[in-house]
Amino acid sequence: MAKTLDKVDVVTVGVGWTGGIIAAECAKAGLKVVGIERGRERGTADYQRVHDEYRYAVRYELMQDLSKETITFRNKRDQQALPMRTMGSFLLGEGLGGAGTHWNGHTWRYLPYDFEIKSQTEKKYGKDKLSSEYLIRDWGVTYDEMEPYYDKVEYMMGISGDGKNPFQGKRSREYPTGPMKKTPILEKFEKATKDLGYSPFMLPSANLSEAYTNPDGKTINACQYCGFCERFGCEYGAKTSPEITVIPTAKETGNYEVKFHSNVVEVLHEGGKATGVRYINWLSGEEYIQPAEVVVLTSYVMNNAKLLMVSGIGEMYDPETGKGTLGKNYCYQILPGATGFFDDQFNTFMGAGSLGMTIDDFNGDNFDHSDLDFIHGGNLSITQTGNRPIETNPVPPDTPAWGAEFKKASVENYTRSLSIGAQGSSMPHRDNYLTLDTKYKDVYGVPLLQLTYNFTDQDRALHKYITERAVEIMEKMGPKQTVGRNPITDYDIVPYQTTHNTGGTILGTDPGDSVVNKWNQHWDAENLFVVGAGNFSHNGGYNPTGTVGALAYRCAEGIIKYSKEGGSLV
């Protein structure tokens, strides 16, 4: 029988960036907050001598245990969905800090166009630019509304950047710290893109160029360029993460507590309001009920949607009829690009997760789509993240996949190859969605989340066009051979691509086509808030974290207001 705990003001499900931001803001406002975290406690001290590629990057030390909980996947509705048994296309994290522990640190603001994509597309290209199968929609908030919260995120994180992107939305302040080092690799990209008439700028980075103390008094150290960012915790405390910023800020108030090894299996609700959450401590097997005045879902995209589904909150999306909103507008990300093989050697083994240079000339609607059969685009970047030896084997396409020739080519090209990559946007399609699996369950007896997803004609056209632009830039950089990425056909759950999943709990201004309102307040339960990349109406041409953080700050403001006044915030 579940043990009922003392009621608190706010309970968050998940303690990563969103859970940490909301905890810090609410605790500073005097609210008692409890964070429920399925993983363990961890911090900078745990990452001393963390440079173990096999343990962290290959065996996924910081990721979710898929033997306990995973997802099922299929490309089409008429296929049998099967469980993802090992980490593949995206990495599901757990533990204090969530994905904010093992991210690279790219920190973007979405373009003003992104927030009003439907109205802007129709205004410029007409209503028939995309077929009705694509569920594009305005978000319900504008860039101008989001700008103050982007500013909060950047100054809390200490983001390093140069502010030279001519396509960016209006900023209230410059970046809090200057850009990272401009290496010879980045300079090569800079010259090539300038020669082609484009506008390169340094990638906004949460690997800081200098030591920085944020407005809450938390210090982030200067990056050491060790090359162990993605899939690793930072042993220097130089990659901004929740464990060194918002979580200690929340704890210092005396109003915050985290319960570890605790997996939430249900959001409890009655009479149109959430009453708390039910969770299981998987170390002891004990079951608990945590009552709360406000419940906030702050876990990963897929888990937020799953918890609403298994708790029976909201109407699940039906692709056959188009009715329902929960699980709708799932999007992934498209990855065009090109690789160049050079005679010269580069220090590719050095770097940082967000050490890079970018152009936005082919992102959003920054270029004319009148004669193109797709909308949006993606940032084109060269990054120097630190190539690690086990999983970095760049070889020309005519190289055997194994044996002596492969080994020789791999060693030869390890420091003689460079890649330009794009994060291509993904538009929602009526046949791409999240639901519950009817066959498979997790270790707690809860149905697994089911993902139905495939690339669309829009995706394939975007990928082809942006890859051609990447090839042109790479050719300008002077390699002996340039190879564009292969055209995409059907989506596969392997190999790794990005962890930039979006949609499923979209926000909006109408309960008929969204799950939460513009303050992330659930339409069907006024004291339930849901925040994360699941709120995105589509995926953009950037990493989602900066926008997720901005939504979290906005959501925290809404929670504090609700705690004082109650009722709907719109």
Give the overall shape, derived from the CA principal axes.
Answer: globular
Annotated CATH topology: FAD/NAD(P)-binding domain
Distance between the amino and carboxyl termini? 39 Å
Structural class: alpha/beta
**Approximate strand percentage:** 15-25%
Question: How many strand units?
Answer: 20
Rg over alpha carbons:
23 Å
Biggest sheet descriptor: 8 strands, mixed
CATH level-1 class: Alpha Beta
Question: What is the number of domains?
Answer: 1
The CATH homologous superfamily corresponds to: FAD/NAD(P)-binding domain
Indicate the mean pLDDT.
97
Protein name: Gluconate 2-dehydrogenase alpha chain
GO molecular function, one term: gluconate 2-dehydrogenase (acceptor) activity
EC number: 1.1.99.3
Keywords: FAD, Flavoprotein, Oxidoreductase
Structure, described:
It contains twelve helices and 20 strands. With 570 residues, it is an alpha/beta fold. The chain has one domain: FAD/NAD(P)-binding domain, CATH 3.50.50. Strands 1, 2, 3, 9, 10, 11, 12 and 20 form an eight-stranded mixed sheet that branches. A six-stranded antiparallel sheet has the order 6-14-15-16-13-19. Strands 5-4-18-17 form a four-stranded mixed sheet, covered by helices on one side. The protein starts with a strand and ends in a 5-residue tail after the last helix.
